């Protein structure tokens, strides 16, 4: 039997409580920490065996503590993750782990030096539907991937600090970069801040990759359509992950362009079966937490999760620069 | 009773035949013209009272002829429209009427000098659903328009000369420019030519207008989704024109961002009724042809149709330059 | 300020726990009762201020107790409701309150004698969507109602005792009888017991009412379509309540048959706008519990809820007889 | 090379013109016949090589004529088919070929005596989607068929003579009987004549078959939903033919009830993949006409088409009796 991993969590807000519940089930929840007294007291009564504190130092100083979960406001992620790594803790940090690529590079460097796990919480990568998309691509069933695009639209939560790129796009970007498995050579964003100056409500992003693949994101919280969708156009088949569907999370269309031998140079199209494979009902958050705990036990290996998190921050940074450059002064 | 307008048509291909049928019903079809002998013979037997010829000069020389309909391949539009205007004919020319803004400016100039009608065939503007969108905007029902975007996607006809921007985008662009009624200050396009070098299959376009409104087009003939959709995000309501729907061509969502007085600076959202007004079943092509004939009878007025056609060509030219600039050498 | 109603609940199963939560919020939960020790203990720890017992007598003997909530297995509803009324308690009893019309008549008689509230838990009648349907009918907006039909289909929970008529149909039947507000003169059912002898998996019911209106129910737990839908065909408009929709729970179609004056005796059709009014998000269960507590405070009045519950049981009994008569011996 | 079949057609109405066009393409159209002068003249100019007459005798007397196509009003089908068979002609007769089972039996008897083809025009049986349903059943892929049901609803053409059973139900009934391949032991119909006395606008039919299978039809031309759908519930899988879908005419759901060995007697459910096989685009009418011409050339064989047509008329007759019996006097 394995000894349970001892985990402390800083940040007990609404998403933080989901993490708490999962870490409490899968590991030993040793500490909870928040500067908000009300939040701390309320969770302390829920998890009476965990020690509660407003001082992060208490957690960092606990030599028995294996790992720190960071679920605080975005602007503090980098700082807290750095402190935890310096204290020799494994770190699970909510996305995005940093707001600048240089910061994320520093964290990665630190994780390597200390041989600690650094895992950003890119939840969608643990969604069985997204994993099925990846599998369809990797197995070659879709043929060469040409284009991937995401639609994350809704009349939804309007943030006053993070724009639609950082609040919505981080989800789709993590999926796109994972599916394509390259870093973009071109990353352009366009958008508009309708409601609050400097906070874009609608953002369109275009990415071009070394292999020639392209990707696009349509992000908006001012939209009549509720969409959470990722489409992959392959040269042999096309696949769609639609998180608004109950039964057809994934649909594979046997549709493709087609160049008949007898008409060299002229392209036609081919349409065949449509298929929605059964996707397991597993909760992505449970799978994500489990993966982190497995890494803590097995060691960080090649730091793939952190490297990959760096790619996401780098792309976000470049898209943000493009967005700012495009905006009228 | 009005004397019927005497019309001659050059170009008898598949779309041309739809125009023929409509002009034959609503006007007097005096001439048909095509250099393809087979096409000419076949339509001559269908419209025995029209004179058939392979020589455009025959039409231009006929002083009784009021108007020329140009339905030939795109590359010839400008030249034929010019000859017709120079010969003093009114001109209906399929879209796009020219491939360069300078050419279209020349045509417009000529139409003004000769006081002749020059009308590009932007069919969608005569679609009752699109007219309803325009009406919803102009009446103020949607509130200030923030963003308009079009989706024209499908696994559809793959052209070997025109790219997706020119073959698909010309439709949505004509609608967007008409709805917003401004010329863009920024026009950027990104895309990729997957199947044939230099012919983009997938194109994304972003437009920014002087008033701050933005627009976007997602154009692709390599796509699993069949979409022909235009969405208007207003500050009070949102509206969608979906040409794939049978009964709900137009849907108005009483959804909007909302800034409660008591929480200054913090935006919430509001969701209300959803409404699909009945749209007349009128055939757009019939309405378009009728509008041209009305203009021929009443005179070109302020040349609004031609001016507007110039805006479309100008935007296409700018988007094409952007697309070329973005493409790797 | 009103004194809180003192409520005791018998039956602490999964649905019972939803009732518990709501009665605990809106009233004073004085007693909880179940013969299942495990269930009793678990809820006792959740509601420490309520007294817990396995003996219903304890509740019946408590003179301070105003009302009893019955959420036990169906076969016991009648017996428990009778005991509670005899003990002078108001009664909320889950649907169906009895399995025979004679039993329900007896309960109603008792409620009248003792002047106590007897309210069967027909939850759907408190659904804002169903209330909107009723309002559309009562306001005359749909015109004369011709036909109402329900679809309750799914590959869903397969019961081993209750058939699809009793387990699914009781919902739709309560809505149909409420909307039409008549008792049927004809009630016919057809179906088949595919999986377990005597327990019909698929049932079709036809009802004819004194006014000439008709109704139909398609009930099945062996079905590829997940449907929870009620359609009302009026002579002026048609309306649909679709509980699987997120945003369009109610849709009103301005569609109708139409008899032009000039073509006497020949019917045409008319199609107009489609409209989905915004429906409040209120939780039906909360509204239902509130209605019961209001009745307890104000008195049973004309016993409309119980009379109406009797109509449902009577129709179920007649449909069951028809189903049995139609089945091959 | 085969000699073309020589065909004559009586009845040149709107549906008749579709038959004309197809028989003209696939056979030699020798005669056209209608008592309506206008219709006769108009089609005569369209098919100048066919002889035109108002007298059926002309066709019956032509010894060179192989086959007669009957596309006249329903009430005349039986009489015209009988005359044609007596004259030794093969007969294609629109559905229903007769309005009473006794008449259809007589026609079948005659076809057997004269060794002539008698084929009723049950068009849906030649629809590639319906053929796919049949194939899914016959191959055993769906497992034992339990229930088949059809929905044919719309706000559609309101007939003044034929009710919804005869005008809409004849389509679904032909499919149901073909798929199940048994004659029903029970056939019950319920409905209502809202608009015109004696002409039911809404009809529900229930059928029970010797094997225990059941079927249902929901037929209405007063309905907000446009549905043309047939659902087959098998014990292993379920399949749907939906003629309103563009791309998913057929969908197979790998869903089923499931009895785990460890819980004998208790049924659960199983949900798996969803699959829409590609269906050929072949026009059903062309396939139907071709099948008739093949039979004319090869001989009537076991008269399967006619026998099967008799089953449809028999079921319609029984359902009509049930409908009349159920209607209040």
Residue stretches of chain A low in confidence (pLDDT < 50, at least 5 long) are none
Shape of chain A: globular
Distance between the termini of chain A: 62 Å
Biggest interface in this structure?
A-B, 49 and 49 residues
- Could you tell me the number of beta strands of chain A? 14
Strand content of chain A: 25-35%
> What's the SSE pattern of chain A?
EHEHEHEHEHEHEHEEEEEEEHH
Overall mean pLDDT of chain A stands at: 95
The neighbouring-strand order within the major sheet of chain A is 8-9-10-7-11-12-13-14
Q: In percent, how helical is the residue content of chain A?
A: 25-40%
Count of runs of 4 or more consecutive helical residues of chain A:
9
**How is the main sheet of chain A built?**
8 strands, mixed
Structural class based on helices, strands and sheet pairing of chain A: alpha/beta
Q: Give me the Rg of chain A, rounded.
A: 21 Å
Oligomeric form: homotetramer
Task: Give a written overview of the molecule.
Four copies of one chain form a homotetramer. Chain A has 329 residues and is α/β, with parallel strands linked by helices. Chain A is built from nine helices and 14 strands. Chain A has helices at residues 14-26, 37-46, 56-61, 77-86, 101-114, 128-138, 164-180, 284-298, 304-326; strands at 6-10, 28-33, 51-53, 67-70, 90-94, 118-121, 145-155, 186-192, 202-208, 214-220, 222-234, 238-242, 250-258, 268-276. In chain A, the strands form two sheets. An eight-stranded mixed beta sheet of chain A has the order 8-9-10-7-11-12-13-14. In chain A, strands 3-2-1-4-5-6 form a six-stranded parallel beta sheet, with helices on both faces. In chain A, strand 5 (90-94), helix 5 (101-114) and strand 6 (118-121) form a beta-alpha-beta unit. In chain A, helix 5 (101-114) runs antiparallel to helix 9. The longest helix of chain A is centred in the C-terminal third of the chain and has 23 residues, at 304-326. Chain A is globular. The N and C termini of chain A lie far apart (62 Å). The model of chain A has no long low-confidence stretch (mean pLDDT 95). Strand 14 (268-276) of chain B pairs antiparallel with strand 14 of chain C.
């Amino acid at each position: 039997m394995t000894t349970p991993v001892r985990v402390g969590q800083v940040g007990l807000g609404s998403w933080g409580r989901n993490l708490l519940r999962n870490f409490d089930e899968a590991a030993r929840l040793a500490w909870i920490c928040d500067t908000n007294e009300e939040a701390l007291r309320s969770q302390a009564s829920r998890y009476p065996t965990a020690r509660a504190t407003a001082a992060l130092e208490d957690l960092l100083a606990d030599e028995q503590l294996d790992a720190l979960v960071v679920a605080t406001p975005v602007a503090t992620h980098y700082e807290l993750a750095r402190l935890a790594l310096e204290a020799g803790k494994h770190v699970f940090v909510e996305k995005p782990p940093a707001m600048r690529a240089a910061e994320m590079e520093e964290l990665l460097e630190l994780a390597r030096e200390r041989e600690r796990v650094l895992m950003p919480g890119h939840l969608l990568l643990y969604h069985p539907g997204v994993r099925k998309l990846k599998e369809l691509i990797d197995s070659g069933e879709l043929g060469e991937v040409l284009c991937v695009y995401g639609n994350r639209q809704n009349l939804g939560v309007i943030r006053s600090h993070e724009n639609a790129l950082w609040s919505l796009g981080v989800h789709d970007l993590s999926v796109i970069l994972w599916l394509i498995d390259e870093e973009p050579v071109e990353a352009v964003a366009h958008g508009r801040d309708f409601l609050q100056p400097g906070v874009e409500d609608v953002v369109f992003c275009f990415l071009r990759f070394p292999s020639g693949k392209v990707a696009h994101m349509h992000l908006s919280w001012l939209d009549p359509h509720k969409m959470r969708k990722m489409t992959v156009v392959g040269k042999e088949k096309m696949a769609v992950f639609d998180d608004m569907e109950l039964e057809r999370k994934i649909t594979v269309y046997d549709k493709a362009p087609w160049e008949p031998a007898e008409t060299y140079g002229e392209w036609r199209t081919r349409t065949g079966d449509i298929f929605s494979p059964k996707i397991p009902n597993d909760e992505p958050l449970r799978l994500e937490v489990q993966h982190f705990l497995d890494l803590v036990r097995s060691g960080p290996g090649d730091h793939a999760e952190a490297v990959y998190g760096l790619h996401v921050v780098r792309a976000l940074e470049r898209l943000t620069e493009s967005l700012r450059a495009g905006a009228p002064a």
